[in-house]
Design a protein that fits this description.
The chain has about 325 residues and is α/β, with parallel strands linked by helices. It contains eight helices and 13 strands. The chain has two domains: about 5-175 and about 210-235, NAD(P)-binding Rossmann-like Domain (Rossmann fold); about 180-210 and about 240-305, UDP-galactose 4-epimerase, domain 1 (Alpha-Beta Complex), CATH 3.90.25.
């Protein structure tokens, strides 16, 4: 087991970044959070004497090697440009992210880090009608997935040459406070809290959602316990139909509200199955999810209700 005392995180203002910072400081680990300059979400970074916020763009990461003092133990690279919508097919933008990832490895080496942990994606697999295993062949079909796969492979090679443990964690589907407003979960919660009737597809997709707090604990554990070259799928290992998740979201807001199941068409080339095999994650680290979807979504709804200034009846 590798004891982590100091960690650095890029892309720290999303759902998993905020949860990871809280997880690390709860275990007495000092955190440097690298935020984009003038980020609108920089105020979301947890306030603690163990947290230091540094503003730096992804294309200037190496400048931090001369600005940060002391040695670090772990480097979490979550920073990525173009994660939603049409930007996923902006091939030049996505390709720059591969360079940023390699820059992050170089910075990790300069700071003395012993382990580098990257956030991968289920998009690396492409369309798989079955359980996603870490060794499932990857055939990504968009720029985002292709470049996530490339970033994982190339950073692993670079880490190997620099003597840094490399861990790559492919997140299947994640939800929780501070997640993007455009996701199915967060947009649905917001609509329901406004008293609207959100429309959905038939919801026949077989899905696996992991709560951000569970993912954060898994990210801490892999830094401490996982061997070099490990690849993991981050999920719960349990699936439900997407419409069952939708009804659980509705019930967490108000069971009397209506949702429009079957009112929207599936996207072209719709992914219909996302399930993570977490057996190697559990074997290597002891991780098992602590939250049910109902528990996590209640906390997420309460957070969104407070954010929207809605008083709970």
């Amino acid at each position: 087991m590798d004891t982590i005392h100091r960690a650095i995180i890029t892309g720290p203002t999303g759902a998993v970044g905020i949860s990871l910072i809280n997880e690390l400081i709860a275990h007495g680990i000092y955190v440097t959070a690298v935020c984009r300059p003038a980020s609108k979400r920089i105020g979301s970074v947890p306030k603690s004497e163990l947290v230091d916020v540094v503003e730096c763009s992804l294309d200037d990461l190496m400048s931090l090697s001369g600005k940060l003092s002391g040695r670090y133990d772990a480097f979490y690279h979550f920073g990525w440009d173009g994660t939603y919508g049409e930007s996923r097919q902006d091939l030049y933008l996505q390709n720059r992210n591969v360079t940023y990832t390699l820059d992050a490895v170089r910075l990790a080496s300069a700071l003395g880090c012993r382990v580098f942990i990257g956030a991968g994606s289920q998009s690396e697999f492409g369309h798989i009608d079955g359980v996603l295993h870490p060794d499932t062949p990857c055939n990504p079909d968009n720029g985002y997935g292709i470049c996530k796969l490339s970033a994982g492979m190339l950073s692993r090679v670079m880490c190997g040459s620099l003597g840094i443990r490399h861990i790559w964690c492919r997140i299947v589907s994640l939800y929780g406070p501070f997640d993007g407003e455009q996701t199915m979960v967060m947009s649905g919660i917001a609509a329901l809290l406004r008293g609207e009737r959100p429309s959905y597809t038939k919801g026949e997709q077989v899905w696996d959602y992991i709560y951000s707090k569970d993912a954060a604990r898994a990210f801490r554990l892999v830094a401490e316990r996982s061997p070099h070259g490990s690849i993991y799928c981050f999920g719960t290992g349990k699936t439900r139909l997407l419409r069952d998740f939708i009804f659980a979201i509705r019930d967490a807001v108000d069971p009397a509200l209506e949702v429009g199941i079957g009112e929207r068409d599936y996207y072209p080339n719709q992914v219909m199955h996302l399930e993570a095999d977490i057996s190697n994650l559990t074997a290597d680290t002891g991780f098992v999810p602590a939250y049910t979807f109902e528990q996590g979504i209640r906390e997420t709804v309460d957070w969104m209700r407070e954010k929207m200034g809605i008083i709970k009846k």
